[in-house]
Amino acid sequence: MRTLMYAAATIIAIAASGSFFSATANAEDFVYKGHKQCWYDQGWKGPGWYWCGYQSRDGKGWGGPEGFQGWHH
Question: pTM score, two decimals?
């Protein structure tokens, strides 16, 4: 009975975190030279492609503006 309760709690925790159901990638994310690139309207160098999560890290992660690698947001 205890094992069943732990299994149920684990399944609920995974489902609640969303990690179980979020296996698809965002259509606006690309990988370039080993870094996932995300579009940000307001990054440290203005609108453009940055390493995901690096839009506020001045001097790091800039990919390029609209059209970089032929990508459009």
Answer: 0.60
